[in-house]
Amino acid sequence: MVRIGFHASHEQFAPSELLGLVQVAEAAGFACAMSSDHFKPWGPAQGHSGFAWSWLGAALQATGLPFGVISALGYRYHPAVVAQAAATLSEMFPERLWWALGSGQRLNEDITGLPWPERAERNARLRECAEVVRALFRGETVTHRGRITVVEARLYSLPARPPRLLGAAVTEETAEFVGGWADGLLTVHAKPDRLRRVIEAFRRGGGAGKPLFLQVSLNWAATEEEALGGAFAQWRYNALGGPVSWELRSPEEFDTATRFVRPEDMHDCVLVSADTGRHAAWLNEFVELGFDEIQLHQVGTNQRGFIEAFGAKVLPQFEPGGRGP
């Protein structure tokens, strides 16, 4: 059966509040969780951005849930340092962490002052960092000089099994690229036909038989008006699409770039409905595509209401013996 998870958005909530929310989500029946990993929020209205890796230690201790996180390496993060963080968490909480690697977003990675390269170069750096991480997880002493530099790095506290290393991809091109080295695919929701092409590209690139993970942006509220308004207030930045989103440098630039986005435009990038049955039907479309894990990002601020509603009316439909949507 598919695992339905709760996405913890550090951009929108203080770390202490997020810790309480994942505990509530576990009690409501969510089977897993995922953490964002930003240095800045998307827009000024969100107003937060806690450090994901310290928060993950607390969240793993406070719950019994498995967690995932997506990071970019080679800019603000040196691959050896974050590999040490992932190995430490996996040693303390065996087989409860997966880690996705992506090519990054200027909003977060620009703070080091390094040049921000075009996508092909970012993907090449991603592959190089992934190879370094793999070698460290194998217990090797790594010296590497290329796009990133590593000198005699070794992880001394290794878990019995390293965390699953996923490749993050939105386009077919990137999905095919990560298929050869990743343990699985992490992508974001889209129309089923487009997702099907992304999955096919991943499998074509070497990902056949590997697990599929999906992050879904949705907004539920008591009324359609509240659901649409909440999505627009907090997540209109998602309406920009991929290429623009990777290049903007600050929350203020995202605010400026979205000044002409209308509330009704949110239906193109967020699953908005006050009907839990409609949400369940959308999720079922993704289940039918073969996703093993679906992480739900409720983009509005009404997190506890969402957890309660989905725990009572949506999650039971995807449990063993559930009646289905």
Fold and architecture overview:
- It is a single chain.
- This protein has 325 residues and is an alpha/beta fold.
- The chain has one domain (3-318): TIM Barrel, CATH 3.20.20.30.
- Helices cover 41% and strands 17% of the residues.
- It is built from twelve helices and eleven strands.
- The protein has helices at residues 15-28, 52-62, 79-92, 106-109, 119-137, 172-179, 192-207, 224-235, 242-245, 251-257, 276-288, 303-313; strands at 3-8, 32-35, 67-72, 97-102, 142-145, 149-153, 164-168, 185-188, 212-219, 271-272, 293-298.
- An eight-stranded parallel beta barrel has the order 1-2-3-4-7-8-9-11, surrounded by eight helices. It has a two-stranded antiparallel ribbon with strand order 5-6.
- Helix 1 (15-28) packs parallel to helix 2 (52-62), helix 3 packs across helix 5 and helix 6 (172-179) packs parallel to helix 7 (192-207).
- The radius of gyration is 19 Å and the shape is globular.
- The two termini are 14 Å apart.
- The model has no long low-confidence stretch (mean pLDDT 96).
